[in-house]
Design goal:
With about 400 residues, the protein is an alpha+beta fold. It contains 15 helices and 17 strands. A hairpin with a 2-residue loop joins strand 16 (about 385-390) and strand 17 (about 395-400). Helix 3 (about 60-70) crosses helix 7 (about 110-115) and helix 10 packs parallel to helix 13 (about 275-280). It is globular, with a radius of gyration of 30 Å.
Length: about 400
Amino acid sequence: MTVFTSVTTPGRLLRSWLPVLFLLVMACRKQDIEPEPVGEPVSYNGPVLGLKETLEKSPYTIFRTAWNRANIDDRLKKAGTTSFTIIAPTDKAFQDAGWTMDKINQAAPEVLDTLLSYHIGATQIHPTSLAQLNGNLPIVTLLKSTTIPTFDDSHPYKYVIYAGVYHDSLFVNGKPVSKWGQVLESTTATIYPADKVLVKPGQDMLSFLQADDRFSFYLEACRINDSLYEDKNPWDQALWDMPMLSANALTPGQFTLIVPTNEAFRKSGFNSVEDIRQHCYQALPIGDPGYDEDSYYQYPTTAMDSILLPNRMGYVGLDGPYGAREMYPVYFMNELMVNRSVSGLLLRPGSLYSSPPKIYQLDFAVTNGNIWVKRLRSSAQRIPLVQTDINVLNGVIHIVNDGLFMP
């Protein structure tokens, strides 16, 4: 027997409209349970003008003229971000640096692009955020270079500035640039005025040290150390000192070097390069790397390196500031004055059967407005920093003259 299912036209219509009816019912139920608005709408009190309009209304006429001649607007579009932090030198700051309006109008756009790009950070830092920091914030600028040795188009050098609030001023790279509280905000950028034109670093640590006879003992100590490591194993550069002093694309990043003068070596009993060499020999033969009692993989060092490692935050050779995080601690004077956590700071956590934890083996203190330093947990007297905030391509240099950081 054949069975036929009969569906009437009204039945078909009902079946086709059921989903629509279901959605209507759900919508009504959702509307029924929505709460009534309470209170008045919150008004928007933030900036309403874009960056271009904010600059046009600003008093920074020389900066604005240089901006337009260098076509910075086009550079911002290619920056890969939509928010920026700008350190804008005042007209007087430009004039004090020799940049009159006439010179700006005669300068090549490429020159002005380099000048201004070092003043522009590729992220927006609001005043409330900066004021809450206990120190400085590294800001990667729009300025890059492919002409520094080992850097190229695929891995350009990125210039960085360090900004922070200290006392009543905005500090950049360890120097006060303006009184705190002066700021312009646009919808995409925060603009801080500066009473000085920022000067980008032009040399790395090695070039700086080589140009000053005061550091010949330190450089010889590094060279002798490297020769001993090379004699031990010419294919293993894990402990070499010299690579750490150069801005190098293979070990990118920045750190703090507290370098002793020749006089500092003499005050610690090293009166000649030969004295340094003989001290290095005390640890010969250099042992083989291996696991210590805590299952960390350790490299034995020379006797001189065991003294000098804290001066460069424990960084050596391939163990320098490298990897995914390219920004390692750079401490300018204004941060050392207020950031008590720098002493003994954990620079990198350890890993069993790999590298041990890296601790900043220096202890800083403030006395009479000056920074004094000694080795962490040492009973030796603290040593004052006699020169500070030397900004270089791979970090910052401070100088000590009264001795080495002895254990």
